[in-house]
């Protein structure tokens, strides 16, 4: 039973990262008690005690503040039960329940994370659980004491290893279904990461401290220039004097997703296609949010996604598993060559009053400008000409007149400051403009020929509307810190510091480690692309690629063929044939001979030797007497005087002939 | 008697062909059956839950886990089969017992030298089951016991040999029809005590008296020269002043006969039970006794072998040998 405790600990440990940590002491307490019982120091816990402990656990769960109907709650409940089971595992039956629950918990772990490391840990936990399953098959009172630990582990590893080909066969060919029902607990308990649906200067600066992966991109054609890689996510229309949001009222993720959602046709109608399309494959990491990031505008989506107004792209629900899409964008296409009134109003919204200096500046600059276009350029250039600084550690700007504070006085800021104040300057003189958030650039992995975009690539820029040209992208940050756009944040910040400074140990800081990380990233990418991202579409694509057009018959044949091959392989590896040497021919014949005589009413007793029996049989069946005696003589000779192999063949032939004689009569 | 139907006959032959009765049998693919256990049903339910989780969360790793465990069920068929294949069961000896006690059969279980077998269970249905491991020792002898009810020649049913090792998901299982039998003596049961004494005196009277014995007092006579002073009847001498000598007799050979016909007990089994008890009693008292039952007479003797012979005769009474 020691095995079970170890298995339980192994299964529960990783889940501790995702669930209330106090469940671990519960397990340790239960396990400790169990150990003492096994050593005979303590009695089985009484029923009352067990009830009290269970009660405390359940109260603890309610007190933890997790939503009642949530994945976390269910997982915690299962874990708690699993931990308590250690208190009362006595019978083999209980042990089986523990092990089966252990399998479920490994599955649960995969819901929280699907990284390579977690997958490896899952395989390890599975090995331990299987070893525990083996360990409990021995009766306690067995003649020889249970096998040592190492042998159980070896056997369970061997079994699981041999299972791999069959598992792969199932994995590749088993039909994949779409979710049967929407999950009541989707999103809850998952930390939201990445770009949020509002922008307060400082938000994105926080993201710059994270080297977590946001998404990876594989281009079908050539990779566009680094300074063209604007991964557009959300459009911020509303400004309240401090924070930019999508809508004037704050909405839940679900509500804003519904509000934004539109049909593909709606987007196409407002688009003037220009230039050429770029096709690329993106794998988004989980964010617990629905936003997707792409080169705008996207005109074709392969995979599960919906269009938003403002040319955004969203998932149908919050992204809880890595998600793969194949997108086609036309970066040079014109968007909204005419602007409807509602959109115009939204693109001109400003809070009443506030920031008087900025408003005055805007009016002054517009008066000097020859055209709208000229005004926009003036404002852009002003960021370059004046003493503006790009920093990840901007000063706090207070609560009122934040734009004035930054634009006129402080002049040190991050992309969000520049984008926000730029749009303010536009709207202040009646030019439709909006803030866009997303990611810019990304890190090219030469080895894997893919681009990884990290959280520190988060960026904010703007779009300004011109008649007949539609929405055009302007990035004021590029004026201040061209490095940020041409190369990366790392270069832009340079020695000023601030890049990933909160991370004590980040691989991005060391070049040799960076190289190693490139390799690891490649592996991660392949993992995401081919394992985690393996879904219905990839399944049909793969089958098509290797086996041509799909048909049920064909797939059945392929699977059947592989199955037989695997079984044959197993039989060979396990040497299953070794115990099946057939009975040698003469014995078979003799058995048939006895069987035959039995039909004539003469049966051989076990105690009778063949010779004695033949005499008896001959006396009972005179018509067969000669054959019976001869047959027995040859048989005895074969059994007791093993002769040359050549002779043996001859003798067996004779035996067969004699047997046929008897049969005929 | 009606002839057994062809299909029954076929099944019987099929079984007989696969499980011939013999002193030893080696389990191979012809003789081993593999079927799933309740545990694997439990695992299948668990897999169902995991599969639903995989579908609803679109989680590849849970799919992989589900299929891995499914493959484990499939491969356990092979491993469990392998754990039983090549095992040889051999009848060594059987021990006689009294009806109602447990008959003990000694059986050898062995496997080829280059293989290891674990947790193999042997036993009859509803009887004790023993578990053996063949790891460091490739030959193990075990004693299996079987309840008995009736006296006579007891031939146990086929032995089930099964194993769920290594993972308990399937059971590999086979039969061995071992050629062995045990003699079950009638249950020792003394009938009515008076009858008992009567039969004892009957037994005694059946013998011839030998005069001038020294055991049993038979009377007194006048003293003759040479009589042992120990035998002088001193009481009579005091009364009469004449010396008398007590006389004793020994029975012809102190032989006791257990005679079927002299028993006033109705019922064959009761008679046999009574005789069985008497044999045990006389054996205990180290008496010399003989046994007479219809069709068989065992001359008086003593000792373990004699006891066994007598009890065996009782056990097999009325049964074709």
Description:
The complex is a heterodimer of chains A (665) and B (321). In chain A, the strands form 6 sheets. A 6-stranded antiparallel beta sheet of chain A has the order 10-13-8-2-19-18. Chain A is of the alpha+beta class. Chain A folds into 3 domains: 2-137, no CATH class; 198-512, no CATH class; 585-664, no CATH class. In chain A, helix 13 (372-385) runs antiparallel to helix 15 (415-428) and helix 23 packs antiparallel against helix 24. Chain A contains 25 helices and 21 strands. In chain A, a hairpin with a 4-residue loop joins strand 4 and strand 5. Chain B has 321 residues and is α+β, with helices and mostly antiparallel strands. Chain B folds into 2 domains: 1-184, no CATH class; 193-315, no CATH class. In chain B, 34% of the residues lie in helices and 31% in strands. Chain B contains 7 helices and 18 strands. Chain B has helices spanning 6-18, 38-57, 60-84, 193-206, 234-240, 268-284, 304-315; strands at 24-26, 33-36, 88-95, 97-98, 102-110, 117-123, 129-134, 139-147, 152-154, 159-163, 170-176, 182-185, 209-210, 216-222, 244-251, 255-259, 288-293, 296-301. In chain B, the strands form 5 sheets. In chain B, strands 2-11-10-6-7 form a 5-stranded antiparallel beta sheet. In chain B, strand 10 and strand 11 form a beta hairpin. The longest helix of chain B has 25 residues, at 60-84. At the A-B interface, helix 5, helix 6 and helix 7 of A face helix 2, helix 3 and strand 7 of B.
